[in-house]
Backbone:
């Protein structure tokens, strides 16, 4: 029964994380008039979204009870970012003119965005590593396919 509970927690946290990452990415990617850090954070969040998507489809991840806590921490930190980003309700005028950075920077400055980027990158890297390890342990015949998919994903960006 413990494994079912852990699997349910992993699945629930992954679904919540996917939704949060999608919302944060969508908002950040619309800011075209900001500094390069805005797009870097958007790309980092997109990469985290991709890894969460891989976890969602991994049968091996469901059976890793400690992964639920790890993803839970990731979701908690991503939720904090999403809360800040969701405070921005861009007007249609801002969307059409592309002048969103001025308003956005009143919520998050470049230093905060650097910290968010580092935080998201850490989560993406550690979750990717954990997924790689548990996948290799459970499905050793697929270990090369996983490495190739990560490399091809990074090349597309």
Residues:
């Amino acid at each position: 029964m413990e494994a079912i509970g852990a699997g349910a927690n992993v699945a629930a946290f992954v679904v919540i994380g996917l939704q949060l990452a999608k919302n944060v990415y969508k908002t950040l990617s619309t800011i075209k008039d900001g500094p390069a850090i805005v797009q870097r954070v958007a790309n980092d969040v997109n990469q985290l979204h991709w890894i969460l998507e891989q976890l969602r489809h991994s049968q091996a991840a469901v059976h890793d009870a400690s992964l639920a806590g790890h993803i839970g921490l990731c979701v908690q930190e991503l939720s904090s970012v999403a809360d800040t980003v969701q405070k921005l309700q861009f007007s249609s005028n801002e969307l059409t003119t592309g002048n969103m950075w001025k308003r956005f920077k009143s919520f998050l400055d470049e230093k905060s965005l650097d910290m968010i980027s580092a935080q998201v990158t850490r989560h993406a890297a550690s979750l990717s590593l954990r997924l790689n390890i548990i996948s290799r342990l459970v499905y050793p015949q697929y270990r090369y396919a996983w490495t190739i998919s990560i490399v091809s994903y990074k090349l597309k960006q």
Observations:
- The helical segments are 2-29, 36-56, 59-62, 65-86, 92-97, 101-104, 110-138, 143-156.
- Residues 2-156 form one domain.
- The chain has eight helices and no strands.
